[in-house]
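Subject: for your reference before the review

Hello V.,

The reviewers asked for a structural picture of the protein, and I figured it would be easier to keep everything in one thread rather than splitting it across files. Below is the amino acid sequence we used in the manuscript, unchanged from the supplementary table.
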Amino acid sequence: MKMAILSHDGSLYSCKRLREAAEQRGHSVQVINPLACYMNINVASPCVHYRGEPLGHFDAVIPRIGTKITFYGTAVLRQFEMSGTYLLNTSVAVMQARDKLRSLQIMARAGINMPVTGFASSPDDTDDLIAMVGGAPLVVKLVEGTQGVGVVLAETRQAAESVIDAFRGLHAHILVQEFIKEAEGRDIRCLVIGDEVVAAIERKAKAGEFRSNLHRGGTATAVEITAEERALAVKAARVHGLDVAGVDILRSLRGPLIMEVNASPGLEGVETATGIRIADMMIEWIEQHASPQDVPKSVQP
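And here is what came back from the structure prediction:
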């Protein structure tokens, strides 16, 4: 098959592993920076141009779109959809997972348990917003944050008011969420492919930190998960429409809670901690669900 990895940085571990896995299985792979793409949007011959040349047909595209380029990256992804290319995660699925507020609303509608969360835009709502999530301590998050950036633990009511007011002063959209103390700075990252959790790790925050993200100095170890956690992770990926997802779970006194769903989960931490070759499994999934096609005349180079 002819595959493309849509990423602004082909030197990242995940991109290199996906390319390696695909090439070892006999596929041709091109890493494409979505920011270097531009599009001809029309009915007869929708196509993507890249660095001065029209791109030919791809049998499959693997989106690895960073948070900062979500808008343009998903626009390019939609253009590939228009030409009938198989996508490992569609543009709609990526957008739904990337918007934290929308993602939480989707999961709430599906009956998926999560930390109690509030969202508001008016400074007059601060008192009620804090009370809504059970008071301090609480967590304040930027809606578009990633890798732990823009996530603050407010341990007192005064601190919570100050953080919320500061974010609003910057005209940032925020979520206010209950703090799950019993998680003790740990969460479970489940890597879901299709209807299966293929790997799971426990991430532990470094001393003095509550965020367990590996980019924030956290550590990861392989972990056994329960049947309930496994089913919850698969359901969370499914309601977003994701074929591949990283689903983050907190273990609380009232059971497992979904904290976040990631449409482009990093592979390094999971592969290193578990020894499972996730990239190979992703390519196998593509082989099972996409097939080489005759190149449509409208997208021939």
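For the response letter, the relevant points are probably these. The longest helix spans residues 227-240. The chain is about 30% helix and 25% strand.

Happy to draft the paragraph if you're swamped.

O.
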